[in-house]
User: Fold this.
Amino acid sequence: MQMIRNLWGAASSVTPSRPRFARPKSPLAIFAVPACKIIINVLNKRGMKMFKKIVVIIAVLALTLTACTPQNEDIQQTVPTNDTAIETPEHGGTMHLSMRRPSTLNPLLNEDVTVARVLRLVYEPLFRLDDNLRPRPHIAESVTVSEDGLNVEITIGNVHFSDGTRVTADDVVYSFQTLISAPENAIYKRHVQNVASVYRRDASTVAVRLRQPQSTFEYHLVFPIVSRSGEGVGAFVFESRDGARQLTLLSTGETFINRIIVFFTNDFESDLNALNHNVIDALPATFSEWARFSQASVRITEYTENHFDFLGFNFNRPIFQNRNVRHAIAHLVPSEDIIRLAYLEHAVVATTPLHPSSWLYRGQNRTYAHDVARARELLDAEGFETLSFNIIVNREHEERVRTARMIAASFERAGLSLGVYELSSEDFLRRLNNREYDMFLGGSKLSAAPEFEFLFGAGNPMGYSDETMVQLLYAASRAVGETETILTFAALQNHIMDELPIIGIAFWNTAFLTSQRVRGDVNPVMGDVFANIREWFIVSNEL
Assistant:
């Protein structure tokens, strides 16, 4: 059997080892989400000046905060075009995927997102996100943080690499150090930007020193762990590589699927064409991309990848310094109609940049209903009988164009004027950078980590400035412990909804497209579409 030589100069083993993670008895197993155990009764104050300024806000919020879990439970929605009955899993079979031609098979040095996606099958991370977008230990067993938030200890679980050796602190330190020295464009590089040092405390404990406290550090422990010999703890190992054409992966014995053949393709259009012609079996696609997909035999599983669309203001315009004007505009956004008619129900209403499915989300009780009369009342109270604005939108995003037109129609019903400028990508970015607009409809693929300084902090692209917002961002980013994290993020969301520096429009879904050959409980999660591949199986080995 041909052996693929990896980046470290040694052939990767293809002999399946004993399973490192227990395989479920059925690919349709249901995992219960534990009930919330959070008791919000303590705020751990450390005397920092910024915290003192906001303690009153947090204390009041603590008295009114009662929800422990997000109200929106619809993270994922599976829409099979041809319903299939529950089947007995079949062992064996080959699945076919695609990615760009890799320049490296080391996931810590790789710079291509399609390659990173496939390498998740071979290498798995310290932490993974659960259905509430909360980091949970995977290879790691636990994490403890010092009171000052600067020292983190990571305990490694009883997990083994594909060659049967146990994952140790040395392997985790090696992975950290490799990523720290990786090229700036490496996929996971940003996850170690706040790491000052890392060292082995004992065989199963890693000590990490942070440059500054970071409440979201666990979100950054999602990078793959690699042994010095190039082994991973994933469900597959490298079997062979056929030059510039394809890569073959072999199951370690933990999966129903026996092999995966990965074809090297040039671009997404090639991937889409391959799926259309049953050459490959799975492909993630954005809303705009999968809306073009017409193959009736493909199953569509919707999930969130944190694509956030919003309406932004140019704060160089004095009118937008008036908070009541921003509130009035929020009441002129027909959110429910936008989700139904612009996004065709493939999105959820956004109130803040925190996804409604997040364990930290507390915006369900703070919404601005579409209410033209209320908008008119707010404007009249400020002495604005009539106003005229413009809004720019990238015409290549059909959902945003439809949204802008719907908002313009709502403005007209309120006796206001909103000119919609549908621009090319180049013109849109030019006008955005030069602030040649009143409002804009834009979007961003947000990190799983709730870090919003780029939107609301100093130097944000809209020219927004608010000292309380800066203090709340600071507090949330440096919170230590579950209780303090919940309280500070709740206070931040509360202030965002009061201030409305932006108006959230939608979080739109991503689709994972699979052929009818792929069966089982296909359940992609943010950052890893193959997270539960141990539950998938192939009904036929023929294309």
Notes: The first strand starts at residue 77 and ends at 80. Residues 39-69+465-493 form one domain. The chain has three domains: 1-32+90-282, 39-69+465-493, 71-79+286-460+501-536.
